[in-house]
Amino acid sequence: MKMPVVTRRTALKAIGTAALLPWLSDDALAEFADIQARKAPPKLKVLTQAQYQAVDALVEAIIPRDERSPGASEARVADYIDLLLGEADEPMRSRWLAGLAALDAEAVTRYGAPLVKLSEEQMTALLTDVSRYETVKPRGDAGLETPRNEQPKPRVDTLWGEVRQPLGRQPLETFFADTKQATIHGYYTSEIGIHQDLRYKGNTLLAEFVGCGTEDGTDCPHCGRKAKA
Amino acid sequence: MPADPTLDLDLAAVLDESRRLAASITPASGPWDAIVVGSGAAGGMAAYQLAMAGVKVLVLEAGRMVDHRKEYRTMEWPYASPRRHRLPPDQRAIAAAEYNFLDRPYGNDPAFAKHKKLASYAGNTFTRNWVVDEKQHPTTGTPYSWVRARVLGGKTNFWGRVAIRYGPLQFQAASRDGFDVDWPFGYEELKPYYDKVDVLLGVSGTKEGLDQVPDGIYQRAHKLNCVEVHFRDAVTKLGRRYIPGRAGVTTDGVLGNKYRARCLGRGRCSRGCDIGATFHSPTALIFPARDSGNLTLRPYSVAAEVFLDPATGRAGGVRVIDANTHEVMDFKAKVVVLGAGCLDSTRILLNSKSARHPDGMGNSTGLLGCYLSEHHMGPRGSGFIPTRIGTEPTLDDGRPTGPYIPRFRNVTDKHPDFIRGYHFQGGSASYEFPGHAQDLPGFGKAFKSSVRKYYPAQFAIGGFGEVLPRKENRVALDAEVKDAWGIPVLRFTYRFSDNEIRMARDMADTADEMLRAAGAENIKIDPTMLPPGWSIHEIGTARMGDDPKASVTDRFCRLHDVPNVYMADAAPFVSGGTQNTTWSILAMCWRTMDHLKEDLRTQA
Asked: B287 and B157, same structural domain?
């Protein structure tokens, strides 16, 4: 079993000082916290400034600010993707960066402007095309002839993880799928995503589990179900 | 890369304690009446029963001590970690266990591709310090994701908390369908021990009067939420049951244990419960037993074999290799109790070779290692239940386990395609991470609001099915490959049979059927079976029975060949039904220890 590395705190302990120092005082960590709070400029590992801005525009288009909460840009999802890229293996990193370049080139071809300069309508039109696979079955999909429970759904590597996806994707579609998954993960694990957008209520003390109101014999305020007479 | 406080835990104190304990306890520190190998559910219960009865017991744990208050990061938010609780490449799986459940970029380094066969939920950022490193602990033969935890408490540090009983369907399974053999006794034999375990450790649930999963002595249950009530009504019409989960978690508190508090409904139980509401062998059993003054605990003690006392022909004790110093020591006692987990206990016996037992101790029949069984898993279904679509999220993920659909196949009817059966676990909650977002189409404001719209309405179930105990599914010692301490590793010969494959297909079909009956939207069925071993419910490799020619242990889990060696874990189990194994290990172990205590008393 791998032993944990010696930390600043254990080192200090070993020399007999500051055993009660607050945890988490590493400068680098504070820096990241700062980034998360959106006060600091990004500290990029892989992306260039221009690429970062393209990714930032793209993730914000996938999960934008709306009336309820800020979007992926404020949640610093582009920084998270930069981190993922920094720790991805080389083929994955190159493939993803090539995908980004291709989508940018597509924007230029269509609208004469890169991703960062697209209007909301242009970005929507572009992403609608590259996400069409999500709702339209590709031709030749085995699913047309095969019972639902026996449809092949191979696992496909994405930047964010291996996910089950149907076959027959175009390269831009694959890039979009990949980036969408990374955006979902980055956004919904952020403070903004969890607390402001989802209004997640857990991870707190709960004296007694509250189920459907009807289980306690009352009308349920959550689902509207009436108590049984 | 920024530092990551969620990875960089300060474990100096607990490591110091482990080394100090290991160094201070030598074979001369005895004498002991009994040696217990392992400190998980089996070893913990064995040690507790013996120590509380005044038996001097030495517990040998292969790993280190655990600091459950520091290591259990029960309430940590994902944004506490820059990687959002994923492991960095250099600390990823291989450092802890090469389980390929981690995601890009952390789980798929091509250099480790050969380990891809090993897949489990158990090697995440919360558990990686406890599960073994596959490089130190290889296996050979057919793929088997064998999850091992070498640390005080073993796998009870992260077990799934489902606490259900075997019932009559199980003990007399062979009489019902003609396959294989029954257990040597029935449910009524084990029922009093289940009752005692329920009271000692605490279990939450509801009485339902079902033969498939007999009732226990329950503390406050975890109610069904809105989505689940709707689903229950639908499956009731199909003649099936959907009941609150039964969790090995104390919701009302347990008496006389200062190490445990009652459940506070925080959720995230799989990271370890830092208030000890979840059953966890150290807080529930080992620490109280140690307080009796009768228990000696030696960490870093890798049990290599049970050695024979040539004068008596009985076991003399346990040969231990210190995990750090590699020093070899013989610890002696009157009886040896193996509770290292089904497969590791079996491995120790297979490795206990002598002139009298050339194929390993307890193996005169050649059956030691045969009849490896577990549960097959994988088929699952999900969808959105209309009554909660578009409503506000509720606090409903603070539960140790979701509801349960008891086995309904081959209970009163006879299925044409397979024998035995399966159950489902699963339910609904507004979870911290909205997993359903990954499958929702689109982007932009419409996508974002649809994530919120469906968030409270998510519903998913997954099946657990019986793997038939078959002699040809087995483990043996590998002739060449050894672990980091020079002990031969296990070679697996294990495959699912047609019965399991047909049953898995039926699981997917009935999941679909029930989701449709509930009027679920966007139903998704995944029929894929998970790899062998995924359930972490291995049983059967030192099968019990009354006939010494057809079994390894007697009905009291004592080796037929060497009567002062007892098995405390699931190795003697004849068949595993669909039930999660831990609660039965605890009840069986208590019963076995009652018998052992009687043996010690009458021999004294």
From this structure: yes
